[in-house]
Amino acid sequence: MSDNRFYDSPIEEVAPGNTFLDSNELVLNMGPQHPSTHGVLRVILKLDGEKVNGIECVIGYLHRGIEKVAEHRTWAQFGPFVDRLDYTAAVSNSLGYCLAVEKLLGVEVPKRAQYLRVILTELCRLASHQVWLGTHVLDIGAVTPLFYAFRDREDILNVFEKYCGARLTTHAFRIGGCRWDAYAGFAEQVLHICDDLGPKIDEYRDLITGNRIWLQRTKNVGVISAEDCIAYGITGPVLRGSGVEWDLRKKQPYSSYEDFDFDIPIGTAGDTFDRYVVRVEEMHQSIRIIRQATEGLMEGPIIAKVPKVIKPPVGEVYVSIEAPKGELGFFLVSNGSAMPYRVRVRPPSFINLQALEKMAKGSLVADVVAIIGTLDIVLGEVDR
Amino acid sequence: MPEVPDGNPPNPVPAQAATTPAAAPAAAPKPVPQPWDCELVQQLKNSYGSGIHDAATFAGQNYLVVDRAVCHDVLLYLYQQLGYTSLTDLTAVHYPKDELPFEMVWILFSMAANERVRVKARFADGESAPTVTDRWVGANWMEREVYDMFGIRFTGHPDLRRILMPDEWTGHPLRKDYDPHKQDEVWVRKNLGIESGQ
Questions:
Q1: DSSP B70
Q2: Whole-angstrom Cα distance, residue A25 to residue A42?
Q3: Which of A142, A243, A218 shows the shortest CA–CA distance to A371?
Q4: Closest alpha carbon to B88 in B64, B67, B117, B63
Q5: pTM score, whole prediction
Q6: How far from B12 is each of A301, A315, B8, B114, CA to CA, in Å?
Q7: How far, in Å, are A347, A352, A375 from residue A236 at the CA level?
Q8: DSSP per residue over B1-37, as a string?
Q9: Nearest Cα residue to B111 out of A352, A250, A350
Q10: Which of A138, A162, B50, B61 has its CA 20 to 30 A from that of B22?
Q11: Would residue B27 count as lying in a domain?
Q12: What is the enclosing helix (H) or strand (E) of B128?
């Protein structure tokens, strides 16, 4: 851009605060076009040599006004839009929104649909964690795991494609249940992934965990305590990495999660390494859940009877799910009409990203990349 | 271009079932807010009296409607005395036809009790809401977003700037009177070099 204000303006205008710079300090602008920011995140770093003395995030480059769009669509029409929030975990977003509208409507989803939803959502968690693993490890300098992770993610995307025709923005669920039933051979294919992926996750672990460079780059990097996590509102694997055993699937079960046996992996140190261990272990737990749900998948209807024109009663609900990134919440306000009066998305990435400043201040500039990776943000969700 | 819905949900009346088809699954009665009465509400009523306008349960979720004068105190009371240590979310809803058009909503959460509560308070247009960044640092960006989208200012906020929209943007997009196709044309022309953002 020719008339970019960051080149044209004096530094005092673009750098935050007048006292931003000491004599030895320099400002480094990272992003919004930078491969390690995982999207269009701009980070302004205040550096003293290699040391980060200050950090500020600039977000909003991907703002599409999804909450405004919701007010001008019907309840059902808004369904596909939520897939564009966290686009690496579109199925989770869809589940969160559908559950919230169903809560407002007071609709009970058939058991088969609940199980189908669990299978697809957990597959989606695996796919999301594989994107995280591949890119996070790549940022730190290991190239091979990216190809392993994306190779195996392909199997999961193939299931989505066969189930609903789309691989990324799936719009897998509808208000009241699922649009499609499991295709012929669905269970076999999913169970095959379960059998196949477990050893492959161990393979990722063998590649990464004991590696000295990996340990040096992640141990004691980006440490955040449990108290700070709670003060920042952080949820998901980042919170669990700091030793808080908290998972909405367990604590406030939705969509039949209470039927399944699984553990909540937690860390102790709250550093980048612990969060890595937590997420990798979560992948194993997801496989456990998928296996139980697939084997227990019963016959029955896949969608509840929902009126063609959805007009929820006047009122408000807040419903949240444990998305791969953390607690994804939908606060819906209905005025009884066919369109939402207000939809507020509680985006886990947005709220987790806020702690970047806390985690990265005082660290080395190379660690900023590791910390952005370990927060596992998706800018589609941060900016909405 | 569908018209903007402008109903006022805070005092809900059950929607008429007459319009729903007979085959609709709505065998279950549509949910209506029930009064919420428990020890917590009593404690708050003892402490704040008429500052607590309403306490109700809707679809199994509890909420409090409080006066804007005491909302900050109620939130801190919930934090300090009743263990609602997490601020899950903070947002606003715009009811342009009401005398106090902006409703702030704080969603608090107690990990120990595994309970959520929503606290709501109404504010006039142009009026400032109290910040809760003094208690929850994580409220910083959420309040910036509310300021960005609704134009509600927060007294005591350390860094109240726009967050999602460009800094120089005029207007607050999530207000009901902001047309979804509306642009800050001056900004678009200057920064993008085109006549319209469409």
A1: T
A2: 19
A3: A218
A4: B117
A5: 0.83
A6: 33, 6, 8, 27
A7: 11, 9, 10
A8: -PPPP---TTS--PPPGGGS-TTSSTTSPPP--EE--
A9: A250
A10: B61
A11: no
A12: strand B128-130
Phi and psi torsions of B99, nearest 5°: -65, -40
Q: Which residue has the tokens 């030793």?
A: A243
Residue with tokens 């995140």: A41
Asked if A335's CB is within 8 angstroms of B8's CB, the reply is: yes
CA angle at residue A111 from A105 to A113, to 5 degrees? Answer: 75
Residues facing residue A306 across a β-bridge: none
With respect to residue B146, please indicate whether it lies within any of the assigned structural domains.
Answer: yes
Cβ distance of A232 and B6 shorter than 8 Å = no
Residues 6+ positions from B18 with CB-CB distance below 8 Å? none
pLDDT at residue A23, rounded to an integer: 61
| Domain range list for chain A | 3-58, 66-383
- Chain B hits for A335, CB-CB cut-off 8 Å, are 5-9
Cα distance between the two ends of chain A: 24
> How many domains does chain B fold into?
1
The phi and psi torsions of A144 (rounded to 5 degrees) equal -60, -45
- Which residues in chain A touch residue B4, judged by CB atoms under 8 angstroms apart? 71-72
Compute mean pLDDT per 10 residues along chain B, 198 residues long, and list them. Answer: 46 41 47 77 79 82 87 87 87 90 91 88 89 89 91 89 88 87 80 72
A232 and B137 within 8 Å at the Cβ level: the answer is yes
Where residue B95 sits, what CATH number does that domain have?
3.30.460.80
Name beta bridge partners: A55.
A45
Contact (CB<8Å) A317/B59 = yes
8 Å CB contact of B141 and A351: yes
Q: pLDDT tens digits, residue range A246-299?
A: 888 888 888 889 889 899 998 888 889 999 999 999 999 999 999 999 988 888
Give the C-alpha distances (Å, rounded to integers) separating A243 from A133, A139, A219, A252, A349. Answer: 20, 25, 15, 19, 19
pLDDT tens readout for residues A222-235? 889 998 999 898 99
Evaluate whether residue B126 is within a structural domain.
yes
Cβ atoms B169, B147 nearer than 8 A: no
Query: How many angstroms away from the CA of B85 is the closest CA of chain A?
Result: 8
Indicate whether B183 belongs to any domain: no
Helix (H, G, I), strand (E, B) or coil at A336: coil
Q: Assess whether the previous peptide bond of A32 is cis (omega < 30° from 0).
A: yes
HSE value, Cβ hemisphere, 13 Å, CA-based, for A128 = 28
Task: Find out whether A137 and A145 touch, Cβ atoms under 8 Å.
Answer: yes
What single-letter DSSP state applies at residue A311? Answer: -
Residue of B6, B30, B57 to mutate when probing chain A, most A C-beta within 10 A: B30
DSSP code string of A233-268: T--THHHHHTT----HHHHS--TTGGGS-------S
Count of other CB atoms within 10 angstroms of residue A32 = 17
Estimate the crossing angle of helix A272-295 against helix A186-208, to 10 degrees. Answer: 160
CATH superfamily of A66-383: Cytochrome-c3 Hydrogenase, chain B (1.10.645.10)
